Amino acid sequence: GQTYGTGDGSSWTNAFSDLPESLERGAAYYLASGDYDVTEEPSLWHGFDDPDEGELFIGIFKATGENHGSDEGWEEAFGQGGAELGPISITTSRYVFDGQLGSLDSGHGFRVSTRDCDDEHAKVVHFPWDSNSQYIAFRHLELAHCGPQSFTDPHDVVYGNRPLQHISFRHCYLHDPNRGQIVMIDWNDVLIDHCYFERNGMQEETHVMAPNGVTNLVVRHSVFRDTNNSFISFRGVENVYFYSNVFLFGEEEWGSVYSAIESLEDARNVKIFNNTFYNLNGLNTGIRFMQDATGCEVYNNLW
């Protein structure tokens, strides 16, 4: 890539040409606007596997006029518009990914996407088999997949089947997977806040969110729009709270709901309240607990 001054990342005059392969704990990395070679490596732009060092975090920030680190060599154009990134994987802990700008379905500082639509297992954010991640924060990101592909390809926006902990998504826009927006298996302490989920595809297991064996999950102040199966399908969960969300179909023809929210296995202490369900159609637009439900409550929702 292009070289800037010494290229040591000490200032914008000496900026890195791309995000370094190895990152320093306790450091903040600011990315200028532009396209970061997402087509060169369509299956993985960067693997975040830096060794943990105590409680030190690594921050990945979209540079803005108000917050861009060093002033040396800074140009206003660096903060105008977003940064286009390819798919990422995360195996270690304590990362903050913050686009700094954007809410609902527009204006996000980071857009992370996959261009490898022919890969039947393509993910946008992947916690692979060797991940032991804790304390991962996503803020102001657009996470985009390829759109409906087939009835078989398990394309997911976010996927992790490891016992991860302390994961949060705030002001993120997730859209157009063939299967799931967030597939979380054995996670603990998860927060989904002020996010926008749109357009799930055609795969036979498609759901917007599929918590499996998850404990301590809060989903609030978020929008769930258009799915071809269920918005939420959980299995074996405990201490789950869905409140102040909107579940809807748009005015255009999209699909149908098998059930708006469903529990396929035992559920303990699930609270679903203060949500709005609008313009849904399908076999069962309600909420179903299909196995034992202990301490579960559904109340004060608008249909």
List its traits.
303 residues, mainly beta, 11-stranded parallel sheet, 9-stranded parallel sheet
The helix count comes to 0
Number of strands: 29
The overall pLDDT average reads 90
Q: What Rg do the Cα atoms give?
A: 20 Å
Which oligomerization state do the chains in this entry correspond to? single chain
Distance between the termini: 54 Å
Instruction: Sum up the overall morphology in one term.
Output: globular
Tell me roughly what share of residues is in helical segments: under 10%
Report the sheet with the most strands, covering strand number, pairing sense and barrel closure: 11 strands, parallel
Provide the structure class: mainly beta
What percent of residues are in strands?
35-45%
How do the helices and strands follow one another from N- to C-terminus?
EEEEEEEEEEEEEEEEEEEEEEEEEEEEE
Report a brief summary of the structure.
The chain has 303 residues and is mostly beta strands. 0% of the residues lie in helices and 41% in strands.
Word description of this protein:
- This protein is mostly beta strands and 303 residues long.
- The mean pLDDT is 90.
- The protein has strands at 28-31, 34-35, 46-48, 58-62, 83-85, 88-90, 95-98, 110-113, 123-127, 134-139, 141-144, 156-160, 165-170, 173-175, 180-185, 188-193, 196-198, 207-212, 215-220, 223-225, 230-234, 237-243, 246-248, 259-263, 267-273, 276-278, 287-289, 293-294, 297-299.
- The strands form 3 sheets. Strands 1, 4, 7, 10, 13, 16, 19, 22, 25, 28 and 29 form an 11-stranded parallel beta sheet that branches. It has a 9-stranded parallel beta sheet with strand order 2-5-8-11-14-17-20-23-26, with no helix packed on it. It has a 9-stranded parallel beta sheet with strand order 3-6-9-12-15-18-21-24-27, with no helix packed on it.
